UniProtKB/TrEMBL annotation, chain A:
<keyword id="KW-0732">Signal</keyword>
<dbReference type="GO" id="GO:0051301">
    <property type="term" value="P:cell division"/>
</dbReference>
<dbReference type="InterPro" id="IPR011042">
    <property type="entry name" value="6-blade_b-propeller_TolB-like"/>
</dbReference>
<keyword id="KW-0131">Cell cycle</keyword>
<protein>
    <recommendedName>
        <fullName>Tol-Pal system protein TolB</fullName>
    </recommendedName>
</protein>
<dbReference type="InterPro" id="IPR014167">
    <property type="entry name" value="Tol-Pal_TolB"/>
</dbReference>
<feature type="signal peptide">
    <location>
        <begin position="1"/>
        <end position="21"/>
    </location>
</feature>
<dbReference type="GO" id="GO:0042597">
    <property type="term" value="C:periplasmic space"/>
</dbReference>
<comment type="similarity">
    <text>Belongs to the TolB family.</text>
</comment>
From TrEMBL, chain B:
<keyword id="KW-0449">Lipoprotein</keyword>
<comment type="function">
    <text>Part of the Tol-Pal system, which plays a role in outer membrane invagination during cell division and is important for maintaining outer membrane integrity.</text>
</comment>
<protein>
    <recommendedName>
        <fullName>Peptidoglycan-associated lipoprotein</fullName>
    </recommendedName>
</protein>
<keyword id="KW-0732">Signal</keyword>
<dbReference type="InterPro" id="IPR006665">
    <property type="entry name" value="OmpA-like"/>
</dbReference>
<dbReference type="InterPro" id="IPR006690">
    <property type="entry name" value="OMPA-like_CS"/>
</dbReference>
<dbReference type="GO" id="GO:0009279">
    <property type="term" value="C:cell outer membrane"/>
</dbReference>
<dbReference type="InterPro" id="IPR039001">
    <property type="entry name" value="Pal"/>
</dbReference>
<dbReference type="GO" id="GO:0051301">
    <property type="term" value="P:cell division"/>
</dbReference>
């Protein structure tokens, strides 16, 4: 439990530290990702210069990130005319515009005297003939993939105007073994599926992991004590602890936006479930719902002032919003079917959910007042949406009929660009981390 | 003789006996829950035994979709369980609540818990002491039937009464 999780990971960014020209108010190259249909931007990502091949590895991770986003169309290297030998010098822009590259990425990777990795890159606007970004990063050698993701985030941000999401991780439940006796282990990986690692040994069923928005910490549910209960796991130390000392099953945990509270369901003796919040420092617990119903899957708004949750208080599972103190619960889902697993978008404007209707499971989004419902994906069995930190991509899991087990998928908020996420075994219950520090 | 009549009332045990006979020694260790405790041959077992409870009395009841209502057919089984438990008072029990796969994970944990509580409350109303009964929900984590249609889902929506020890 340590290595790549170390908080001491050092990245020094010298933004525009060696920019060649001041930027005009508005560069030519830009992607408007709020348009209905986005034409992927043709971009040339050259092999980063290095003595040992590490440059090629880093630039190929950058290229894969940008391609998977669906917003960029990296150009085949065979079409390149100019061979970049000095990434610090201005390229011959017409060599790139003639192959329709609207943006160009160049870079080099070297080793510092004290044995660390140094990566520099420049992003060029080929039609305007100028540099948009020039940055350099330092890290220990084993963190080279993170350097690549950070550069991809920087390019994404500069060209779309939105925050990136490539330097992030996914915690999920790895599933193996027969369907009537599944082995479930907590697992963690980079958002592109690299660096997969197990966090629990599979002896107990574990479910529904969620990242802290502020620390290297997750909360999840485990059967390890014999009673299903909510736990915290420190990713850097591997230290685990029970959340609270409740008499019955606790489940459906999620952090508050400041990471100081865990909100979850507690089973009552009569078989109903209510929502509680626990302050992790004071250990004080607050009861937020009292209905004689199932109240579960709570999720805070990003400003912490409201909570969206699932309840069957009206007869069947629907989505409700209440104040963070439990005040004024209002039903917001009114479509045909049942609704559950609401998750508030990190931008605050939308709620993602699972809807069951007509024998299918759907992943969708609606505004926080319930209006503007849009279904992104329908299928035999799929559930559990989680948001990328920029609020533009949703991950969930899907199990087609007869498939034997679930797999992770991501999809754009537009409902386009569905991508399967590679995992070692079957995977479920994904949770997206915030951008890494 | 009595045991054969009892088996005929219990389709689950018939199915399991048939599976044992057909499958021979293959993979039976993966059968979950107390069904694994079934003895070979399917006899009702001696009075007061775990086997008698599972096979002759019936250790599980089934529910309708998204419901924790104790159905009429389940009331008969739970009443027999209560009679048996009131006779063999050294047993404590765990009532496991389960859901099918046609619901989302957290909701189904709550639904399984509600089913276990409903079965427990029925047993308590029939005289079984509440302090002998523990409940646990497995949500949709432990299906017994694993196909992708209603024939399996209806078997997975269940509450199973597991004997925890005593004079078996």
């Amino acid at each position: 439990m340590q290595s790549f999780l170390k908080a001491t990971f050092m990245i020094a960014a010298m933004a525009a530290g060696f920019a060649m020209a001041t930027l005009p108010a508005r560069a030519l190259v830009e992607i408007d990702i709020n348009k209905g249909v986005v034409e992927p931007l043709p971009i040339a990502i050259t092999e980063f210069i290095s003595a040992d091949g590490k440059g090629a590895e880093i630039s190929s991770v950058i290229e894969a990130d940008l391609r998977r986003s669906g917003l960029f169309a990296p150009i085949e290297k065979g079409a390149f005319i100019e061979k970049i030998s000095n990434p610090d010098a201005a390229p011959r822009f017409q060599d790139w515009t003639v192959i329709n590259a609207q943006a160009l990425v160049t870079g080099k990777v070297s080793e510092t005297p004290d044995g660390r990795l140094r990566a520099e890159y420049r992003l060029w606007d080929t039609y305007a003939g100028q540099q948009l970004v020039g940055e350099q990063f330092f890290s220990s050698k084993d963190k080279w993939r993170r350097i690549a993701h950070i550069i991809a985030d920087s390019i994404y941000q500069r060209l779309t105007g939105e925050g990136g999401y490539f330097d992030t991780r996914i915690v999920y439940v790895d599933e193996s073994g027969p369907r009537n006796n599944r082995v479930k282990r907590l697992a963690i990986m980079d958002q592109d599926g690299a660096n997969q690692r197990f966090l629990t040994d599979g002896r107990s069923i574990v479910l529904t992991p969620r990242f802290s928005p502020t620390r290297q910490e997750i909360t999840y549910m485990s059967y390890e004590s014999g009673q299903p209960q909510v736990y915290l796991l420190q990713l850097e130390t591997g230290q685990r602890e029970l959340v609270g000392n409740f008499p019955g099953m606790t489940f459906a945990p999620r952090f508050s936006p400041n990471g100081q509270k865990v909100i979850m369901s507690l089973l009552r003796d009569d078989g109903n479930s209510n929502i509680f919040a626990m302050d992790l420092r004071s250990r004080n617990t607050t009861r937020l719902t009292t209905s004689n119903a199932i109240d579960t899957s709570p999720s805070y708004s990003p400003d912490g002032s409201q909570i969206v949750f699932t309840s069957d208080r009206g007869g069947r599972a629907q989505i409700y919003v209440m104040g963070a103190d439990g005040s004024n619960p209002q039903r917001i889902s009114f479509g045909d079917g049942t609704y559950s697993t609401p998750v508030w978008s990190p931008r605050g404007d939308l709620v993602a959910f699972t809807k069951q209707t007509g024998g299918e499971f759907q992943i969708g989004v609606m505004r926080t007042d319930g209006s503007g419902e849009r279904i992104l994906s329908s299928g035999f069995l799929q559930e559990g949406p989680t948001w990328a930190p920029n609020g533009r991509v949703i991950m969930f899991f899907r199990q087609p009929a007869g498939s034997g087990g679930p797999q992770l998928y991501s999809i754009d908020l537009t409902g386009r660009n569905e991508q399967k996420i590679p995992t070692a075994n079957f995977g479920s219950d994904p949770a997206w981390s915030p951008l890494l520090e | 003789m009595r045991s054969i009549a009892a088996i005929a009332r219990n389709p689950v045990s018939i199915a399991l006996v048939a599976a044992l006979a057909l499958a021979g020694c293959a993979n039976q260790k993966t059968v979950p829950n107390s069904a694994a405790d079934l003895g070979l041959g399917g006899a009702g077992g001696p009075p007061g035994s775990q086997q008698e409870f599972t096979v002759s009395i019936g250790d599980r009841i089934f529910f309708d979709t998204d419901s924790s209502l104790i159905r009429a057919d389940a009331q008969g089984i739970l009443s027999r369980q209560a009679q048996w438990l009131n006779k063999y008072t050294s047993y404590t029990i765990t009532v496991e609540g389960h859901a099918d796969e046609r619901g989302t994970r957290e909701y189904n944990l709550a639904l399984g818990a509600r089913r276990a509580a409903a079965a427990r409350d029925f047993l308590v109303a029939r005289g079984v002491a509440g302090n002998r009964i523990r409940t646990i929900s497995y949500g949709k984590e432990r299906p017994v039937a694993t196909c992708d249609d209603i024939s399996c889902w209806s078997q997975n929506r269940r509450a199973v009464t597991v004997l925890n020890g005593g004079n078996s």
